[in-house]
Design brief:
The complex is a heterodimer of chains A (322) and B (477). By secondary structure, chain A is mainly alpha-helical. Chain A has 15 helices and no strands. The chains are: A mainly alpha (322), B alpha+beta (477).
Chain lengths: 322, 477
């Protein structure tokens, strides 16, 4: 497959995963605005911005915390994260970049995938925060989450299982690892910085990963932070757990055809092994999950570079014999 | 719907109706069906057609437009119908014309007999900016310089005429296929009962054509479609066609040339490319040979082409044959190379490079269409009757300053076909662009990219100038 097409599919996967992840977070924030105490809402924003390594447009979140949290602040923050075109991390940026990449590689997608993604794009295009804020912002986020789930389902049902499929999934898997490691890290940091973190901050995190019921069944009704983290990192039955995302990543990587750049491809395989080992073997004995998550996230970034060198932008030394 | 308000004008050929108001025989089915369809149902059908284009993202781009974003070509849902015999005549005429044009190209880049024999003045050929001196002596595979040609045809009361040959990178075929798909899905019963000739196999025919032109000794050639990229107005078509013909969709940066061979960068390493269906202009094809500031092209690809290691379709340099001045000589080419009379006529053309042509043009500016030789897409032209005296005077200055850059033609009464406009059926001017494919033989899929001037009275059908499309149905015998 053409390197540029593979790269386009890979990025499409990454962007859509990113847009969905953020929509899930924002949906929870929007719900919290209805009935949760101010400090919990604050915790939520701290967590979101922390996981994106980004400063909010209103200055510092610490400053905001000193005043009473107003709805206006949340409105500004949600706008920044949802529709702000200059914010590369916003939901809109994710959808439009994902769709732009899809446009480049449309011939590698099934017709149904394109139509599905294009509909999502057309739905969100031109919307503003005012449009969604007055009635039910959570509905907008829920629809966006569902749209991208639908896209994944349509892809699974219709896409030819060629290399393109593999690179699309490589992108999705690596993005998941990056998003989850960053979010769990941000959760720990936010918890450290906040006095009297409520249990709700942790149940919220579990709900985000569809893991609350599973947690109750495994550990009981009281949510203990470390146990929540353990579940989210190491439970292979949880679709979005770190270890599952890593498994997906490693399976897709193992399936890719031989790379023209042996060196980088070998390094990528070894790094993949180390990343899996961090979660599968080191995690439970590790007292400081924060450091481990940070390391995992850095490895993820390096793995991306190695994938680029292996398949997309490898150096051309020798031209094959004709 | 009734046709009571449908305006007929004896000077203008109506595709559906005879001058006496009776429907032409090949239009009977469509006429009856439309008469029996309510305005509301037709509006639904139009919505369906438009909706399918929007959700499928079938778009083009308009240059010089600030919004510059993707736009949907407006498609009119009413089909335009041609009879089998009308089509056969076009087919023979188009085949004849392309054959002569290919012989002309081989000649002007070779011995130039046609110039020597005085059929075409040397300066018309050599003075043409599209004449590529680099191609002299090039032997195109099987003599085929133009493998894909899109000929613009119009119809008047005198019959069909060729308005323009597009021999470089003609576009629009994806719309032909998309229009058909959308329109037949909306007029299901009418489509089946009308017995329309299929066009879906265009991709396969194109593939066969390209395979036939692959460099000697390659069986099962690797074909790549070279696009300028997603910002090009026709990107949708490039993407679509690549899928149809099983080609990789490549940009210049995906290709490299080593030792006279072309390779593309794949995830598994470099892979040799045999045939490049290129959709970028000569100027941008190879920065080593043509414009050195081109970032879209592939350095060295011209060398590979001239070595015969890769086939470029169409070959570079074909623009000399669809130049607006050279156009005037195509009927002579047909007589010269084939010793036949042209089957489809040209539009009468006055070359301003000739003193008598210039004089005629300036004297009759109010009744002529004046075109710039180097422009296409309806840009830079003057439609005399629709221009103000001031506009005409200003244009006349430009013509006087550089007469060789202009040609003029009488304003044609382009035929009109019924279109659905604001809930009513009204006639609009139309043209059509069939696609002629030439490998070892000529093949024409029975269909065309049909353009409609949707603005009332407008004669400009270009998509970039407010034109739309409709679906052409060529009936079986």
């Amino acid at each position: 497959m053409l390197s540029r097409s593979a790269e386009g599919l890979y990025w499409m996967g990454r962007y859509l995963e990113r847009a969905q992840h953020l929509s899930r977070l924002l949906r929870m924030q929007a719900e919290a605005l209805v009935d949760r105490p101010v400090n919990e809402i604050h915790f939520g924003w701290l967590r979101v911005y922390g996981s994106l390594h980004r400063q909010p447009p209103v200055g510092s979140l610490e400053l905001l915390a000193q005043d009473d949290y107003t709805l206006a602040d949340s409105y500004t923050l949600a706008d920044d994260l949802t529709f702000e075109p200059t914010n590369p991390a916003s939901v809109w940026s994710g959808i439009s970049s994902g769709r732009e990449n899809a446009r480049h590689v449309r011939h590698c997608l099934s017709a149904e995938m394109w139509t599905c993604l294009n509909r999502t794009y057309l739905r969100v295009q031109g919307m503003t925060i005012q449009d969604i804020w007055a009635s039910s912002p959570e509905r907008f986020y829920a629809e966006t989450v569902a749209d991208i789930d639908t896209f994944a389902g349509v892809a699974a049902a219709t896409m030819y299982r060629d290399e393109g499929w593999r690179f699309l999934n490589l992108g999705r898997a690596i993005e998941r690892v990056q998003l989850s490691s960053a979010l769990l890290h941000a959760q720990i940091v936010a918890a450290e910085r906040t006095r009297d973190v409520s249990e709700a901050a942790w149940t919220g995190l579990l709900r985000l990963y569809h893991a609350l019921e599973a947690y109750h069944r495994t550990y009981g009704l009281t949510v203990v932070p470390r146990q929540a983290l353990d579940l989210l990192a190491t439970d292979a039955r949880l679709p979005d757990s770190l270890c599952r995302s890593l498994d997906m990543l490693s399976a897709e990587l193992a399936d890719t055809a031989a790379s023209p750049n042996d060196q980088a491809a070998g390094a990528a395989q070894r790094l993949m092994g180390r990343m899996s080992a961090l979660v599968n073997y080191a995690w439970l004995d590790q007292d400081d999950p924060k450091a481990l998550l940070q390391q995992l996230n850095e490895h993820g970034r390096d793995l991306h570079d190695l994938l680029t060198d292996s398949f997309f932008n490898y150096p051309v030394h020798d031209v094959p014999a004709r | 719907m009734d046709f009571n308000d449908y305006e007929l004008d004896g000077r203008i050929y109506d595709e559906m109706f005879h001058a006496d108001g009776n429907a032409r025989s090949h239009y009977q089915g469509v006429h009856t069906a439309l008469t029996g369809t309510s305005a509301a149902d037709l509006a639904d059908i139009q919505d369906q057609v438009t909706g399918s284009f929007s959700s499928e993202g079938i778009s083009f781009k308009v240059y010089g437009d600030d919004e510059g974003d993707e736009r949907i070509i407006p498609v009119d849902c009413l089909p335009r119908v041609l009879s089998a015999s009308e089509w056969r005549e076009l087919e023979t005429g188009l085949t004849q014309r392309l054959k002569a044009l290919n012989l002309f190209l081989a000649d002007v880049y070779g011995p130039a007999r046609i110039v020597e024999d005085g059929v075409i003045p040397v300066d018309v050929v050599r003075g043409c900016p599209q004449y590529r001196i680099e191609m002299r002596g090039f032997k195109a595979p099987h003599g085929v310089w133009v493998a894909i040609c899109g000929t613009d045809l119009v119809r008047t009361n005198e019959g069909f005429k060729v308005l323009e040959d597009n021999l470089r990178v003609p576009s629009g075929v994806a719309y032909m296929l998309a229009n058909r798909k959308a329109v037949k899905a909306s007029f299901r019963r009418l489509y089946r009962s009308s017995r329309v000739q299929e066009i879906e196999h265009y991709g396969r025919v194109l593939r066969t054509t390209l395979e036939e032109l692959s460099p000697a000794g390659t069986s099962d050639p690797t074909i790549a479609l070279l696009t300028p990229g997603v910002y090009n107005s026709a990107f949708y078509e490039h993407m679509f066609l690549a899928g149809q013909i099983g080609a990789e969709l490549v940009e210049g940066r995906d290709l490299l040339v080593d030792d006279g061979f072309v390779y593309m960068r794949t995830t598994a390493g470099l892979r040799r490319v045999d045939v490049v269906y290129r959709r970028i202009d000569d100027d941008f094809l190879d920065p080593v040979v043509f414009r050195e500031d081109s970032l879209l092209g592939v350095p060295g690809i011209m060398h590979a082409c001239k070595q015969g290691n890769v086939t470029l379709a169409n070959a570079p340099g074909t623009g000399v044959a669809d130049d607006k001045s050279v156009y005037a000589y195509v009927p002579d080419m047909i007589r010269y190379y084939l010793a036949e009379e042209p089957i489809i006529a040209n539009v009468e053309t006055y070359l301003c490079r000739n003193p008598e042509g210039l004089e005629y043009t300036l004297d009759n500016l109010a009744n002529l269409v004046v075109k710039r030789v180097g422009e296409s897409g309806g840009y830079g032209m003057l439609i005399g009757p629709h221009a103000t005296p001031a506009e005409r005077a200003e244009y006349a200055e430009q013509v006087r300053a550089n007469p060789a850059d202009f040609i003029s033609q009488p304003v044609l009464d382009l035929s009109r076909a019924p279109c659905l406009i604001d809930g009513r059926i009204e006639p609009r001017h139309v043209d059509l662009r069939p696609f002629v494919l030439h490998g070892r033989q000529t093949r024409i899929v029975p269909g065309a990219f049909c353009r409609v001037a949707l603005r009332r009275g407008s004669l400009v059908v270009n998509s970039s100038q407010g034109g739309g499309g409709n679906d052409l149905w060529v009936l079986e015998n």
